[in-house]
Design goal:
alpha+beta, two-stranded antiparallel ribbon, elongated
Length: 96
């Protein structure tokens, strides 16, 4: 995430220890095409359980934040796609 007005960037990512390994393993199985309907049901249940754990414990146990003033956003492949024009004025007239 980046605050346009200051240029400050924060990378937010799920802590590896907080993400259930069973979710990754079952996702790979489903993506391979070699799965059963019961696998889909199980995947839905473990994802829902994970989501409920995320919202019921302190955020810092699940995610980590890395602050960076020097992050450079990659060029967009689609120019002005979903561009918010109100951000053009956050730094004043020189930002346009």
């Amino acid at each position: 995430m980046q605050r346009i007005s200051t240029g400050a960037s924060v990378r937010v990512r799920i802590r590896a220890a907080a993400y259930p390994t069973e979710v990754r393993a079952l996702a790979r199985k489903i993506e391979s095409g070699n799965f059963t309907p019961a696998d889909i049901d199980r995947f839905q249940k473990i994802q829902w359980d994970y989501a409920q754990r995320l919202v019921t414990r302190p955020l810092t146990e699940s995610v980590e934040f890395v602050v960076s003033q020097a992050y450079a956003w990659p060029e967009l492949s689609c120019k002005d796609f979903s561009r918010r024009k109100d951000n053009d004025y956050k730094r004043g007239p020189q930002a346009r």
